[in-house]
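Homework help board

Subject: predicted structure for assignment chain

Our instructor gave us this sequence and asked us to write out the predicted structure in C-alpha cell form, then describe one feature. I got the C-alpha cells but I'm not sure how to describe them. Can anyone check?
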Amino acid sequence: MNNISLIGMPACGKSTVGVLLAKTLNMAFTDTDLLIQQAYGKFLWQILEDDGNDGFNRKEEAVIGALRCENTCIATGGSAVYSEKAMNHLKSISKIIFLEVPVEEIIARTGDIKSRGVVIEKGKTLEELYNERLPLYKKYAGFTVKAGGKSLEKVVYEISRLSL
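My C-alpha cell output:
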C-alpha cells in the first residue's frame, strides 16, 4: 500500500499539495475530479447541474472505486467522504491524509463555488457544509495535517515526514 490519498474541503489544497507531494516523494499523481470529468465528458459543475448531487456522488463513487494504481498521490474531491464504499476502497489502496484548514480560510480561498463543482445542497452555506463534512474527514483520515495558514512547501514537508 504505497499510495497516498488526500481528503478535505474544497480549496484546502488537495490538488496543489498532491502535485508537489508527488514530485517530492517521486510518485505519480492523479486527481479524481479530473478523472470524473474525463470519464463523463463534462465539467464537474455540468454533472451537478445535469444529475444533481446524488447523481454526481454515484459517478464519483464509481470512478474512485475503479482506481487501480501504485506509488501514486491521489487528490480526491471534497465530497468523496459521502461514499463509504469509495472511502473503504481508498483505505484499502492508500494511506489517507486529511488536510485540515479552518472554515474561515476555506471561505476566503473558495471564490465562485458554482464553477468549482461543489456538492452542496441549495441554500446551505459553506460553513454548514464544513460542519457537515468535518466528522467524515476525521472518520476516514489515517493522518491529519493542519494546513491552515501554512505554505504549500511546509504542508508537503509535514506530510513527507509522516510515518506512512
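Reply (TA_rk): Your C-alpha cells look well-formed. For the description, you could write something like this. The first strand starts at residue 3 and ends at 7. That's the kind of observation they're looking for.
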